[in-house]
């Protein structure tokens, strides 16, 4: 591929993006969730769709599960089913936000019985991971308060630390816990893990196998996300990404759709910090919903966007950039950076795919494959899955 040396090609080839099972279900705003023909009715059908994205792109070898949305009787069998389709089961996402008991919190709750219930749910998730062969337990909490004075901020942090420590004891030697942060929603005044600093403080107290998960949609507008990426990589605490893009809130739009330049800057820092090196501990995942657009093409587009910005980030002439930076050549440095971003690398990527037996244009190939028509015809009856089921 154009201008990429052997090391850069190796880095590029390491790119693998995990897909969330829930991206294939119906989801949307609180106003209306629109159904889509062919939407999966079972966990197996979600996995089949995810495997299809991988087949057309070669970029998505894992599917993340959400418990209890993706509960099956036999997770070992689900693992084999996925393997037969060419994918592995990935991150297990816990859910302590859809039960009345969690109205005032889960791992932070003042009532020790509720805390224990939330801890037990995570222990169950780890058992699932043992059966699915998953490495990562991802925790995103809806815990927080709506009004100043409603909760004891400090006490909630202390209880969170205690609950996480209990869960962490159950994490296997080859497993990890990643703690996701979000500065708003559903709580309106304060969330208990609002930012990377809080996540970092909490996971650092636990041990090596506890890391931070960065969801690109969970920051205030204007936040310099690539700075956070650089810092967490520097500290060895960036465990995973939830990729998506946003215009206003936690929009969960296709990654790279709202701001490809931001994705470029993030991928540049990922590469700079070794996050795409062979054996890197950084897991790249999508956390997206497709409300009005088709879901499988939505996921194909997403992984291609990450691939494209990765390739462009690898085009940055880092030697020339370092020179310009060292000599105080502000505009020269910026120009080197922008040159890479503005380079249209799509023809190179198409050729690269074709050389590897993948469709040069995965979007077109999927549209022509008949898969969508097949699932639309086959998946009648039953209940379509949705975000939350
Ligand atoms: C809610 O904000 C959320 O989008 C988090 O980002 C989680 O990763 C995801 O839901 C699934 O639980
Ligand atoms: Mn997320
Ligand atoms: Mn989110």
From TrEMBL:
UniProt-listed GO biological process terms: L-lyxose metabolic process; rhamnose catabolic process
Organism: Williamsia limnetica
Any one GO MF annotation of this record: L-rhamnose isomerase activity
InterPro entries (UniProt xref): L-rhamnose_isomerase (IPR050337), Rhamnose_iso-rel (IPR013457), Rhamnose_isomerase (IPR009308), Xyl_isomerase-like_sf (IPR036237)
Keyword line: Cytoplasm, Isomerase, Manganese, Metal-binding, Rhamnose metabolism
This protein's name: L-rhamnose isomerase/sugar isomerase
Superkingdom as given in the UniProt entry: Bacteria
Coiled-coil regions listed in the entry: none
Native organism taxonomy: Bacteria, Bacillati, Actinomycetota, Actinomycetes, Mycobacteriales
Pfam families with a match to the protein in the record: RhaA (PF06134)
């Amino acid at each position: 591929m154009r201008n990429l040396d052997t090391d850069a090609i190796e880095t590029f080839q390491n790119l693998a993006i995990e897909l969330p099972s829930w991206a294939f279900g119906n989801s949307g705003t609180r106003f209306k969730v629109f159904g889509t023909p062919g939407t999966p009715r079972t966990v197996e059908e979600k996995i089949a769709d995810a495997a299809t994205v991988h087949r057309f792109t070669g970029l998505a070898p894992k599917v993340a599960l959400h418990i209890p949305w993706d509960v099956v009787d036999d997770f070992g069998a689900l693992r084999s089913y996925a393997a037969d389709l060419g994918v592995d089961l990935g991150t297990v996402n816990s859910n302590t936000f859809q039960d009345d008991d969690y109205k005032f919190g889960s791992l932070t709750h003042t009532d020790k019985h509720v805390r224990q219930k939330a801890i037990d749910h995570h222990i169950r998730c780890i058992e699932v991971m043992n059966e699915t062969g998953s490495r990562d337990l991802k925790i995103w909490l809806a815990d927080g308060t709506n009004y100043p004075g409603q909760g004891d901020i400090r006490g909630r942090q202390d209880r969170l630390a205690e609950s996480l420590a209990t869960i962490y004891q159950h994490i296997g030697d080859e497993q990890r816990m990643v703690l996701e942060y979000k500065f708003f929603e559903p709580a309106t005044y304060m969330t208990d893990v609002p930012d990377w600093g809080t996540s970092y403080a909490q996971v650092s107290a636990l041990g090596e196998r506890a890391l931070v998960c960065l969801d690109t949609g969970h920051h205030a507008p204007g936040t310099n996300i690539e700075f956070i990426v650089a810092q967490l990589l520097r500290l060895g605490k960036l465990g995973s990404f939830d990729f998506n893009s946003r215009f206003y809130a936690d929009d969960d739009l296709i990654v790279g759709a709202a701001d490809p330049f931001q994705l470029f800057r993030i991928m540049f820092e990922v590469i700079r910090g070794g996050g795409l090196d062979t054996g890197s501990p950084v897991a790249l995942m999508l956390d997206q919903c497709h409300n009005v657009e088709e879901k499988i093409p939505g996921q194909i587009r997403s992984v291609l966007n990450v691939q494209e910005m990765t390739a462009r980030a690898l085009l940055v002439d880092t030697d020339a950039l370092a020179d310009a930076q060292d000599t105080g050549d502000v505009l020269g440095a910026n120009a080197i950076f922008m040159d890479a971003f503005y380079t249209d690398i799509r023809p190179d990527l198409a050729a690269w795919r074709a050389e590897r037996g993948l469709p040069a244009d995965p979007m077109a190939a999927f549209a022509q494959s008949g898969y969508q028509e097949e699932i639309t015809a086959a998946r009648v009856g039953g209940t379509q899955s949705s975000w939350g089921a």
